[in-house]
Design brief:
By secondary structure, this protein is an alpha/beta fold. The protein has one domain: Alpha-Beta Complex (Spore Coat Polysaccharide Biosynthesis Protein SpsA, Chain A). Strand 7 and strand 8 form a beta hairpin. Strands 1, 4, 5, 6, 7, 8, 9 and 10 form an 8-stranded mixed sheet that branches. Strands 2-3 form a two-stranded antiparallel ribbon. Helix 3 packs antiparallel against helix 5. The chain is built from 7 helices and 10 strands. The chain is globular and about 40 Å long.
């Protein structure tokens, strides 16, 4: 895997309102979600950073941490922060609550990073913006939307070059789309607890 020019940014800025506690630290099969995600991506990319507004809670992970540059601007603000703070031009953004990330799929996405401003999976017609590769060329378009209160993540996609990976491609690496499963609620946790990775 070519790691050159790649920063991996783990997003840990959600409010976790449906979980009732910080879902990054909810344990799946005995391990906190954030540690599962970190360990999956730790040798993907040349740099690893964490986007969080609670640095004290995550200090034990040993990752550089950055707070939101646009507080209370949702996931789009987190993505903007990740791309802005990354040392490298290509930024793989992943969510802290996706414990089934597929390393082969991530590697394939990164292999395409020079072909578009965004490389993003699209499972059942829904893009996965917290499982995507962004180029720093996206920053001006994202900033314009943030400054104007347009917080839909895909709202700036029309202003940049986007390469979608549809189901037929994804299934070569992840047959059932498990990569995109989020653990948002206690029910999600219970359903996934017994599934072996």
């Amino acid at each position: 895997m070519d790691k050159n020019g790649v920063t991996v940014a783990i997003q840990a800025g959600g409010k976790s309102s449906r979980m009732g506690q910080d879902k990054a630290f909810v344990k799946l099969n005995g391990r906190p979600l954030i540690e599962i995600v970190r360990d999956t991506v730790i040798d993907v990319g040349a740099e690893h950073i964490l986007i969080t507004n609670k640095p004290d809670a995550y200090a034990h992970l040993g990752l550089p941490m950055f707070g939101d540059l646009y507080p209370d601007h949702g996931p789009l603000g987190g993505i903007y922060t990740a791309i802005s703070q990354a040392s490298h031009p290509h930024v793989l953004v992943v969510a802290c609550d996706m414990p089934w990330l597929s390393r082969p799929l991530l590697a394939y996405m990164l292999s395409l990073r020079a072909t578009a401003d965004i490389i993003i999976p699209r499972w059942d017609k829904f893009p996965e913006p917290l499982h995507a590769v962004y180029n720093k060329t996206c920053l001006p378009a994202i900033k314009t939307n943030l400054d104007n209160g347009r917080l839909k993540i895909t709202g700036f996609f029309g202003q940049v070059q986007v390469k979608y990976l549809d189901r037929d491609i994804i299934e070569q690496f992840d047959q059932n789309g498990r990569s995109f499963v989020n653990i948002n609620t206690p029910e999600d946790l219970n359903q996934n607890e017994s599934k072996a990775k």
